[in-house]
Design goal:
The protein is an alpha+beta fold and 228 residues long. The chain contains six helices and four strands, in the order H-E-E-H-H-H-H-E-E-H.
């Protein structure tokens, strides 16, 4: 009597373990494919949005130079439906470039962290200290400190030193006012905000361009030079 040979096979535990490994591998593969598709889609939309932003910025610059600089801030918004991308929107803001007043600079030179000015200045205490540190390390802040306007400049020279400081401050203020007026009348800052939805998440980025008007600069210099 011959013994029957047993056929080799897989147990239930081995089959379940193999299926678990296969399932985990498929999940990783699907996630990788989905990530690649999302990255490709983001890259595609970014390329399209960048090209549309470049064209829109060129239109805004041309329109600004044709119509001339306005004294007040200008805003506009819309989308790129004419280009076939109605889901991509834009918002533009054109504003004059204004420097802080000379009194504010004097406050910063004297170490007053809360002397921030204008809409561009931070409102918090940390922002004021950062602005103070930035100004005091700049060329203008160093020049004012060298002439004795900084917080470290103190004591002894009497009335002669005080008169010298006043004369120097008057000269610097006149030159600074000239630069301030020239920038205000001859330079505009265009901020273009592009927003779109990739289908997975929303994206937004800003494009900034400074536009100068040589004719406006010459006119401003001429009018200021003609003043007594």
């Amino acid at each position: 009597m011959t013994a029957r040979r047993r056929r080799g096979g897989f147990t239930l535990i081995e089959v379940m373990l193999a299926l678990a490994i296969l399932g985990a591998a498929l999940v990783i593969l699907v996630k990788s494919i989905a990530g690649n598709i999302t990255a490709a889609q983001d890259s595609f939309y970014m390329g399209v949005a960048t090209e549309l932003a470049r064209g829109k910025m060129a239109d805004l610059e041309e329109e600004l130079l044709q119509e001339g600089f306005q004294e007040t801030e200008q805003t506009d918004e819309g989308d790129f439906s004419e280009e076939g991308w109605a889901g991509i929107t834009w918002a533009a803001r054109i504003e004059p470039v204004e420097l802080p007043t000379f009194d504010v600079l004097m406050g910063l030179a004297q170490g007053e962290a809360g002397a921030g000015a204008g809409s561009g200045a931070g409102s918090g205490e940390g922002d004021g200290q950062s602005q103070l540190d930035t100004f005091q390390s700049s060329a203008l802040g160093g020049m004012l400190g060298m002439f004795g306007f900084g917080g470290g400049g103190g004591g002894g020279g009497g009335e002669a030193a005080s008169a010298g400081e006043q004369a120097t401050a008057g000269f610097i203020q006149s030159q600074y006012t000239l630069v301030q007026q020239v920038l205000k009348h001859s330079i505009r800052k265009i901020t273009l905000t592009i927003a779109y939805d990739t289908g997975v998440h929303q994206e937004r980025f800003d494009v900034i361009l400074y536009v100068s008007d040589a004719a406006g600069m010459a006119k401003t210099l001429g009018s200021l030079g003609a003043q007594p």
